[in-house]
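Hi P.,

Sorry for the delay on this. The queue was packed all week, but I finally got your sequence through. Input first:
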Amino acid sequence: MTSVIGANIRRLRQDRGWSQARLARETCRAAGIPGDPIGRQEISRYETGKRTPREWLPFIARALGVTVNDLKAQRGSTQLPVPLPDQDDARGDDYAHAIRRMSRRLIVLDNEMNGLPIADMAARAFKAVHRRLGEGAYEPRYERDIRAAAAELAEIAGWALFNAGKFNESRRFNQEALFLTKLSGDRSTELLILQNMGMLAGWVGRAREEFSIARSVIDQGRLTPRVEAMFRAREAQGLAGLGRSSEADHSFGRARSLLEDSAPDDAPRWAWWITDSEIDRQQGRVLHETEQWGAAIPILQRAMQPDSGTVGYRNVASVRLLACLLAVKAWQAAEEETEKLIPAVSEMSSNVTLHLLARVANRGEALDDAPSSLRDALRHIGEAVNEDPYIL
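Then the structure:
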């Protein structure tokens, strides 16, 4: 019979999209033990209750980003909650755990209900951690791990600020996060931050910077196929912004090929969202913004298919698809897409998506040859975007 500990281990592992072999490797890494003294079969025994982890339990908890008490907690069949941690008295390994638990909570919120607004929470949480880092209010022997955890939190804040349309603030938090990864030697999180910095550069029209960030990472080598795919797609967007369309197409093709070669367990745990649909979203953005509307439509439709890469900003593909359908005067399809978007507007928290949607709706409403029913639906979207979010 499955034990409480085993059920919790399995649930948390599955929440991360990890295989049992992946958890075994992460556990050994958390224990600081080279090689693979425990393997997939041992994790399977723990999960099914055939064996109790005992000495491995603290390291399994660390790999999963929770405490030992979390793994022992009786939670029935529901998901383990991730409460906001009390960081005031934590000074050592428990402080690093508290920071990571905060980060996990923010990530969950970012991916619920089309992405709940977390920018202010994430920024405030990191500012509190940043203050303690400056004061040295922690045990020095845990400094590296605390800095690594702080870098992860700063990265989340940088992403959330971007999603809130606060680009200058996002850049500031990204730079602080990058600094902390350098101090802690956390190359994995450094790569994620560099991807975010490239994304921000491209969004604000700095295509050369977007391209340069991607190329600098690719040229260093030592990337897993999935992570290289992410930077190839970022490279492609930078190339498109520089007017080098054929090279951009080649880089997108390379990204897709790398994903096909990527084993499920060969990437960092944050790379779960790097999927074929994500590559489609990014190429769809390029084709939309370069006015290749006909080519963009099937790619954006494909980007909206469900896969393992569901993220909080997923509606952006639908918005870009609507813009392309309006541009090619596919009125019926555009009206169908508009009707799908209307009920989702009130749940959207991404300001970058909402601002894009408002522009698309305003332009569509001004099209004199569009059917009146479509223009009315677009007017409804414009009103919904500007509606007071506190009206019930």
